[in-house]
Amino acid sequence: MLWAGLLLSVLSGVSAAPVSVSVRFGGSVSLPCDGSAYRGAPVGSLSLLWQTPTRRVWAFRQGRAAPGPGFENRTEVSRDGLPRGDFSLSLHRARLSDEDTYECFREGEDGSRTFLGDVRLTVVARRDTVTLQAGASLSVPLLTGEPVEVLFDPAGSGGRETITILTLEGDWVSFEPRYHTRVLVKHKVMTLYGLTPADQGTYTVLQLDTRRALSTVQLTVHACSRRLTLQAGASLSVPLITGEPVEVLFDPAGSGDWTSVCSVQSSTASCVPQYRDRVSVDNQELRLQELRASDQGSYTVRDLQGNTISTAIVTVEARRDNVTLQAGASLSVPLLTGEPVEVLFDPAGSGGRETITILTLEGGWVSFEHRYHTRVLVKHEVMTLYGLTPADQGTYTVLQLDTRRALSTVQLTVHGPANIRNNLLFTFLLLAILVLFWFFLRFY
Q: How far is CA 122 from CA 20, 102, 126, 248, in A?
């Protein structure tokens, strides 16, 4: 019996190899402990202890839980699991310093301990894969209040071009110069603004003292793309997104036959002649004013490495205006282009059967339909028709000569002589009343 007791004592102190468990930095993990031998025991009578070889992690005595130093608000054992003999420990917001071997014990009233199992915990870097559009912002959690670096390895560089974006120690932050205006650190999160395809790659948060990775973010940036339908004469805004030098390409037919129309550097655009006087750059946007039918197509912004940053597919529709004027007034019709055009007039009620070509404009040469020769003036790409009468009511269309596409239409209504007659009658009656009133005062 003595030998049996000694053998049992020895065996009770021998444990199998620890269970291996891993957790991502900042994540949560359950460390298993089988207490099935105590299933059904009153919870108030249980006394449990979780520890590492050097630290007390969590204790449970007389119905009360007591986490060890550094484990406050991060450790718990489910009270629902205790009656079932499940003494597994939940560890939250895992740190690199949590890596260790964790031992689970049941404590007796006499202070003795019964070993229930051990767990080897490994903390690995958190890994995220993110896909965002150009112009968006990337948020990288720093996950710790300890000193860190954020490294960037551009896509395809294989670690040969790694950049230290920032170093954070306490409240002190130092930035790599090119990121100084694009990065903000707040509430233990680094935010990188104004993403472009050049920002694609791997971002690593590195603990300074251990040089171990806390997290990695694999970033893919898609070009910003949008479809727009605008009226002729309106303005088109194309996002440049970056202050770095870019090129703006144009494909009028959507066939992939791209032509460089503008290059932008330091908020200054250098464009081909047909765009030169209509383009401006502001707030990292290229604005093309006074849209024409020939501006319809696809616009693509590329960086100097050939990465597509943004695309805008534009449909230009005819501009439509409804105008009501008095007889004798003048009508102004914007021609909206420096290219050859015709201005057609469809009298009200004709249904297109009596269409008249008022003028044809090609370069600096203008030809008029003879009845309009003395009534029409073309200046600064605007046609003005003087001395309106009710006969001028109808639809005026500016037509691009080569494409036969309408650039704009103006539906004109003219208030005619009837209104003038009404005004004269009102004036005559008012004068008559004044004369009668004068006679009344004079003779009575």
A: 8, 11, 12, 50
Backbone angles phi, psi at 97, to 5 degrees: -70, -10
Query: For the chain, how many residues are written?
Result: 444
Q: Are strands 126-133 and 183-186 parallel, antiparallel or unpaired?
A: unpaired
In this predicted structure, the answer to whether residue 77 has a pLDDT above a threshold of 90 is yes
Looking at residue 411, its amino acid is Q
Rounded to the nearest 5 degrees, what angle is found at the Cα of 109, between the Cα atoms of 75 and 46? 40
- Tokens 């695309």 found at: 311
Q: Per mean pLDDT, which range of 66-70, 84-88, 155-159, 228-232 is the poorest?
A: 155-159
Distance, CA of 29 to CA of 44 (rounded, Å): 26
| Ordered strands of the 89-91 beta sheet | 29-31, 89-91, 75-77
∠ CA 359-360-361 to the nearest 5 degrees?
Answer: 120
Instruction: Identify the DSSP state of 438.
Output: H
Kindly report the backbone phi and psi dihedral angles of residue 333, in degrees, each rounded to the nearest multiple of 5, phi listed first: -120, 110
Among 330, 324, 346, residue whose Cα is nearest residue 396: 346
Summarize pLDDT for 2-34 with one digit per residue, the tens. 333 333 333 344 456 899 999 999 999 999 999
Q: Of 154-158, 181-185, 227-231, 427-431, where does mean pLDDT reach its minimum?
A: 427-431
User: What burial letters (b/e) apply to 166-181, b meaning 16+ CB within 10 Å?
Assistant: bbbeeeeeebeeebee
d(CA 221, CA 223): 7
**Around Cβ 276, how many Cβ atoms within 10 Å?**
12
Model pLDDT for residues 243-301, shown as the tens digit of each residue: 899 999 999 977 788 999 999 998 899 999 989 999 999 999 999 998 988 899 999 99
Rg (CA), the chain: 41
